């Protein structure tokens, strides 16, 4: 069965740790020039960090990367699309809002597909963030993670990796969203969610959400750990989900934290192509 990475929970805890181990030696990862691997990448929208790190990772691995704009925007059936394209490509890196179509394409293709972002999931962003936390803060299971805000593709992926890895996490939700969920990791209690938190995650709000009481502020962090990390998913909005004072504070995980995105993208590609 072809391996794909569409959602975080496509991988077990053991596989995720294996990806982390590969990322630890990312500089050494490279395919032989005799391998002649070719990748198709297609990015909907103005992708910056994810696109840049994937293209760099492909190049550094020795893989020929070809940009096929709007691959999944065609009206052609995915079974036909993959049937033709599989002759020329060894792996696909796709960013497209249409999650269902991406899933269908991956299921029909005989080659691995990586979800570089869809409407439902942003697994590469999140697995890289978790890796950076492990690198800089140590044992993941000793930490408390607080996810803050209405559900998004990023926060969905945080929930999934939390369950797979058995992390201690809580999702602080507005009441209207919390009422739809019964799991014990959802809460509307702000103080409870942020108390003793080691890592706090935010994501950009959807256009139909504008509750400024869910903006993360420095006051909120008074009950968090003194060395807590705040990781806002870029591009972040300092008028909405996160107050600008946090970006200039000791809590902001910083731009250095994102350097591990490259390590993870490279490890993902290497794993999917070398360990069939």
Uncertain segments: none
Give the overall pLDDT as a whole number. Answer: 94
Task: Give the distance, in angstroms, between the N- and C-terminal Cα atoms.
Answer: 9 Å
Strand order of the largest sheet: 7-6-5-8-9
Query: In percent, how much strand structure appears in the residues?
Result: 5-15%
CATH class of the largest domain: Alpha Beta
What is the number of helices? 10
Tally of extended strands? 9
Q: Which percent range fits the helix content?
A: 25-40%
Radius of gyration: 19 Å
Structural class: alpha/beta
Q: Strand count, sense and closure of the main sheet?
A: 5 strands, parallel
What spatial form do the alpha-carbon principal axes imply? globular
Order of secondary-structure elements: HEHEHEHEHEHEHEHEEHH
CATH homologous superfamily assignment of the largest domain:
Aspartate/ornithine carbamoyltransferase
CATH topology of the largest domain: Rossmann fold
Number of domains: 2
Reported CATH architecture of the largest domain: 3-Layer(aba) Sandwich
Structure, described:
This protein is 36% helix and 14% strand. The chain is an alpha/beta fold and 276 residues long. Helix 2 crosses helix 10, helix 3 crosses helix 4 and helix 5 crosses helix 10. The strands form 2 sheets. The chain has a 5-stranded parallel β-sheet with strand order 7-6-5-8-9. The radius of gyration is 19 Å and the shape is globular. Strand 3, helix 4 and strand 4 form a beta-alpha-beta unit.
Jot down its keywords.
single chain; about 280 residues; alpha/beta; Rossmann fold; 2 domains; 5-stranded parallel beta sheet
């Amino acid at each position: 069965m072809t391996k794909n990475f569409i959602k975080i929970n496509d991988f077990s805890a053991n596989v995720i740790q294996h990806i982390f181990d590969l990322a630890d030696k990312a500089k050494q990862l490279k395919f032989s020039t005799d391998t002649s691997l070719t990748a198709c990448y297609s990015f909907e929208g103005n992708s910056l960090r994810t696109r840049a790190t994937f293209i760099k990772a492909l190049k550094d691995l020795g893989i020929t990367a070809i940009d096929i704009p709007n691959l999944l925007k065609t009206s052609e059936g995915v079974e036909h699309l993959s049937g033709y394209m599989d002759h020329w490509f060894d792996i696909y890196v796709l960013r497209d809002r249409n999650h269902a179509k991406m899933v269908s394409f991956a299921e029909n293709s005989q080659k691995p597909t990586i979800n570089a972002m869809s409407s439902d999931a942003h697994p590469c962003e999140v697995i890289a963030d978790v890796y950076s936390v492990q690198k800089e803060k140590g044992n993941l299971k000793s930490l408390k993670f607080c996810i803050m805000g209405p559900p998004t593709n990023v926060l969905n992926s945080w929930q999934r990796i939390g369950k797979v890895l058995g992390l201690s996490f809580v999702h602080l939700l507005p009441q209207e969203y919390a009422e739809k969920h019964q799991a014990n990791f959802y809460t509307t209690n702000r103080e409870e969610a942020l108390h003793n938190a080691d890592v706090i995650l935010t994501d950009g709000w959807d256009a139909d959400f504008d509750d400024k009481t869910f903006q993360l502020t420095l006051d909120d962090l008074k009950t968090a750990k003194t060395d807590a990390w705040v990781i806002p998913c870029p591009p972040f909005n300092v008028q909405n989900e996160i107050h600008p004072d946090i970006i200039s504070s000791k809590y902001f995980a910083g731009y250095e934290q994102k350097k591990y995105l490259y390590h993870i993208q490279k490890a993902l590609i290497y794993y999917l192509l070398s360990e069939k």
